[in-house]
């Protein structure tokens, strides 16, 4: 993991918690996203996908902010486009969006628990990045929104589709039609935020939850993520088949034997992620 170098992100292991922290390090731009940023996030996740010592990943904005705290304030509108693509060619414009969708899809498909640790702005493409995570931990000072309409554009990195599936069509219409910012408290009331945390408790809370997942049975988490992620996209009878297959796979795990033994022996289980 230490061999690959990135310009827009950094990834660090927290060994006592069996997790890694993936930080966007563009504080002067409020961690605004370029294609390179998204590509590096996807590549960084790939480096830890088969690393058995990393059983959970926290995705966040860099802690050491220079202007205001931000997970990501959205797309970097000052970034130059791909010089090989003709902006007048509709097929080329479609391909440009395909590239961005590809990176969001790769991040969403990461098979281990992915926590979005949101402290500050999560706007536009940054909020779309939150949408491809599994758990959202937000400080109370955080703000969420899709301001694209104010720039004459729209949330085209999966936002119109993924957010509607989270909080419903009418709430998403309001967010996207008017470009408002919404407080973490409001997003929590709408069921989008997994944990709402006081600002001064945020860092410790993120570490606590990431460590919990980092010490949990990894195979069971893998099956849970796949069943929810894909089983909810198909009819119920097909989704239940995911559970059948997931059960068959998970019962081969050594952590199942450990969990059952610990329960019968009235002790705390020590899961090895195997």
Description:
With 274 residues, the protein is of the alpha/beta class. It folds into 2 domains: 9-214, 2-enoyl-CoA Hydratase, Chain A, domain 1; 218-264. 43% of the residues lie in helices and 15% in strands. The chain is built from 10 helices and 10 strands. The protein has helices at 35-49, 90-108, 125-131, 159-167, 169-178, 184-189, 202-214, 218-231, 236-250, 254-264; strands spanning 9-14, 19-24, 57-61, 70-72, 114-118, 121-123, 135-139, 143-145, 181-183, 195-197. The strands form 2 sheets. A 6-stranded mixed beta sheet has the order 1-2-3-5-7-10, sandwiched between helices. A 4-stranded mixed beta sheet has the order 4-6-8-9. Helix 4 (159-167) crosses helix 5 (169-178). The longest helix is centred in the middle third of the chain and has 19 residues, at 90-108. It is globular, with a radius of gyration of 19 Å.
Characterize this entry briefly.
The chain has 274 residues and is an alpha/beta fold. The protein contains 10 helices and 10 strands.
């Amino acid at each position: 993991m230490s061999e690959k170098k990135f310009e827009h992100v950094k990834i660090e292991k927290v060994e006592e918690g069996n997790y890694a922290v993936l930080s966007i390090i563009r504080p002067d731009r409020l961690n605004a996203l370029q294609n390179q940023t998204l590509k590096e996030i996807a590549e960084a996740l790939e480096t830890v996908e088969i690393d058995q010592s990393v059983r959970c990943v926290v995705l966040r904005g860099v802690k050491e902010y220079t202007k205001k705290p931000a997970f990501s304030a959205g797309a970097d509108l000052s970034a130059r486009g791909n010089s090989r693509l003709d902006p007048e060619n509709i097929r080329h414009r479609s391909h440009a969006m395909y590239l961005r969708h590809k990176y969001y899809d790769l991040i969403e498909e990461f098979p281990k628990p992915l926590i979005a640790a949101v402290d500050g702005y999560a706007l536009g493409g940054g909020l779309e990045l939150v949408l491809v995570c599994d758990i959202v931990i937000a400080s109370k000072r955080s703000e969420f929104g899709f301001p694209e309409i104010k720039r004459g554009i729209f949330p085209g990195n999966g936002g119109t589709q993924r957010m509607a599936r989270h909080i419903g069509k009418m709430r998403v219409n309001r967010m996207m039609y008017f470009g408002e910012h919404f407080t973490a408290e409001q997003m929590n009331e709408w069921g989008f935020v997994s944990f709402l945390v006081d600002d001064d408790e945020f860092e410790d809370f993120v570490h606590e939850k990431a460590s919990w997942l980092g010490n949990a049975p990894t195979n069971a988490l893998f099956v849970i993520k796949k069943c929810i992620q894909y089983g909810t996209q198909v009819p119920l009878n097909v989704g239940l088949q995911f559970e059948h297959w997931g059960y068959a796979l998970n019962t081969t795990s050594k952590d199942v034997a450990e969990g059952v033994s610990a329960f019968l022996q009235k002790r705390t289980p020590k899961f090895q992620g195997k």
